[in-house]
Amino acid sequence: MTPTNKEKSADRADREFIVGIEPPADRTEKAFWFIFRGREVLLNIHENPGVIPKLHDPGELELSGIREQYLGTLDGTHCYSVEIPEGAKAPEGIQFADLRQAYSEISEGCFALVNKAVQVMEWDRTNQFCSRCGTKTRKRHGERGKECPDCGELFYPRISPAIIVLIRKGHEVLLARSPNFPPGLYSLIAGFIEPGETAEAAVAREVKEEVGIRIKNISYFGTQAWPFPNSLMIGFTAEYSSGDIQPDGVEIEDAKWFSADEMLPVLPGKISISRKLIDHFLKEEGLES
Ligand SMILES: [Zn+2]
Questions:
Q1: Number of separate domains in the chain
Q2: SS3 258
Q3: First CA to last CA across the chain, in angstroms?
Q4: 165 or 110, greater pLDDT
Q5: Do 152 and 224 fall into the same domain?
Q6: What one-character-per-residue DSSP string does 169-186 give?
């Protein structure tokens, strides 16, 4: 059975997204529009058909874009990202949500698309000119890329790989907090991979730098694309090897061993890979978070 338009929400995890580069020739059908004001996304959280506005054009909401990018199709519905001016007002009944707020309010499937849309939008915005010679760039046909017509430099969306690791010591897990976290929140050790470094070496280095301990048995867990600002988080588990916890006082202000059956601190949101790792640990310990 073909879903009706009312059922065609972007807010379902089982949708099939197909990346597309070249937009359709016309806009006779409504599309999902990921509309950004800075790093805020326009969400229609109170009405069907879902949280991402479905429109022929942002003009329907009396909004005009500075530039737009075609993203592909979601179950056959075209998707675009568009940047609008900083001072633009949200239409009645719809609101702009900061990405971190959106991440706690919308489904994982929808957040994945917002993540993709914001990164494409920011890549487009920040690569209007060649960073080597200053000439205006142009789109490369058939791929998500730009090129400099003068010197030939190529510009693709930048993805920054970062590691995150759950460290276990017997029945305890190491949780740590950054001074930037909301009050009471603890999470896992994380950090960006240095040029020329393997992900496993980055795990061992970050742990040693931030909390002063050595670890062993580093194992791959999974990955998550993360738009703060353009990371690919690569998750690992590891076991404590040696040393005493010594927070570096800069990235980490406090770190402790917690057992699964004691009162845990405030944990990261459910769709983050840090929480998935912590939930995995709790499940292994026979508990649900
Ligand atoms: Zn150039």
A1: 3
A2: strand
A3: 38
A4: 165
A5: no
A6: ETTEEEEEE-TTSPTTB-
**How many angstroms is it from 126 CA to the middle of ligand 1?**
14
Q: What share of the chain is helix, strand, coil (3-state, %, to 5)?
A: 20, 35, 45
* Token couple for 242: 């040696």
pTM: 0.83
| pLDDT confidence of residue 65 | 93
The residue range of the domain holding 37 is 17-126
Which residues, listed in sequence order, are joined to residue 240 by a DSSP beta bridge?
Answer: 215
The CA 147 to ligand 1 mean position distance, Å, reads 8
Compute, in angstroms, the gap from residue 154 CA to the centroid of ligand 1.
9
Say if strands 214-226 and 172-177 run parallel, antiparallel, or are unpaired. Answer: unpaired
Q: Are residues 266 and 165 in the same domain?
A: yes
Say if residue 205 is in the same domain as residue 266: yes
Instruction: Map tokens 């929480």 to a residue.
Output: 275
1 in a structural domain: no
